[in-house]
Design goal:
The chain is of the alpha/beta class. It has helices at about 15-30, 45-55, 60-65, 75-85, 100-110, 125, 130-140, 160-170, 185-190, 200-215; strands at about 5-10, 35-40, 70, 90-95, 115-120, 150-155. Strands 3-2-4-1-5-6 form a 6-stranded parallel sheet, sandwiched between helices. It binds adenosine-5'-triphosphate (ATP) and magnesium ion. Magnesium ion binds near residues 18, 41 and 94.
Length: about 220
């Protein structure tokens, strides 16, 4: 059994799946977990990020991304990941956008303990979570154990009402919403291809803590 498995899933590209997966993998590793980051997106951006970060002069290969990372854009992810994940691993899956790669994303959703939907606090992104929720309901029937799912509010503007409003709307819709909301910050926007800096980790440490503290198991999100 792995310690925890989480897939970053959303309908559309550009919602922060890869950024969230990579930062989360780092803070879990920093906390002493063995981490397996699975790049399930055929575009391979998490793996590319790791490769670029490792080219940073003066850093040994393992120092930039101090955990295992594999590219596995497979519709059979739910069978392949258990073959490579070690006992007590924290498995983080960067899933591709559902609208273009439904088979892969569904397979990731079928495998993980927690489906995490990164969503900006804007009406358009909240609206687009509906197809994700429908998929979660469908996938639930294929799973061998109950799964959990939650929205991760990200790209939030500091001191704006939109974050609290979005949380209220999402909770009314029946979603679990992680307590920690990730702000929209340059340190995240500029982080692709670089080793993860210390600045900006605190928020992700709290997100990781939220994930660890989530009750197990939960049923599907009500439709
Ligand atoms: N919290 C944040 N603050 C600021 N910028 C962010 C944040 N999260 C993500 N971004 C930026 O938003 C853009 C999209 O993020 P990212 O590439 O992680 O999304 P994605 O869902 O993985 O996209 P794709 O489906 O294309 O793989 C990137 O430019 C990234 O730097
Ligand atoms: Mg991505």
């Amino acid at each position: 059994m792995t310690a925890l498995s989480v897939a970053l899933v959303n309908l559309k590209p550009g919602t922060g799946k890869t950024t969230s997966a990579v930062w989360l993998a780092h803070v879990f590793a920093e906390a002493g977990h063995t981490v397996l980051l699975v790049d399930a997106d055929p575009s391979g951006s998490a793996l590319e990020w790791a490769d670029l970060a490792a080219m940073n002069p003066g850093l040994p290969l393992q120092a930039a991304f101090p955990f295992r990372i594999v590219a596995l854009p497979s519709r059979n992810l739910h069978r392949r990941v258990p073959e490579i994940a070690l006992t007590d691993d924290v498995v983080i899956i960067d899933a591709p956008q559902l609208e273009d790669h439904e088979g892969i994303a569904r397979s990731a959703m079928r495998y993980v303990d927690e489906i995490l939907i990164p969503c900006a606090p804007s009406p358009i992104e909240i609206n687009r979570t509906t197809p994700v929720r429908d998929e979660i309901t469908e996938v639930e029937e294929l799973r061998d154990r109950p799964g959990r799912s939650a929205v991760l509010l990200n790209r939030c503007v500091a001191r704006a009402n939109s974050t609290a409003n979005a949380r209220a709307v999402l909770e009314d819709l029946g979603y679990g919403v992680l307590r920690t909301a990730v702000p929209r910050l340059e340190v995240y926007a500029q982080s692709f291809g670089m080793p993860i800096p210390d600045a900006g980790r605190d928020v992700w440490r709290r997100v990781a803590q939220d994930l660890i503290e989530r009750p197990v198991p939960r049923g599907p999100v009500p439709s």
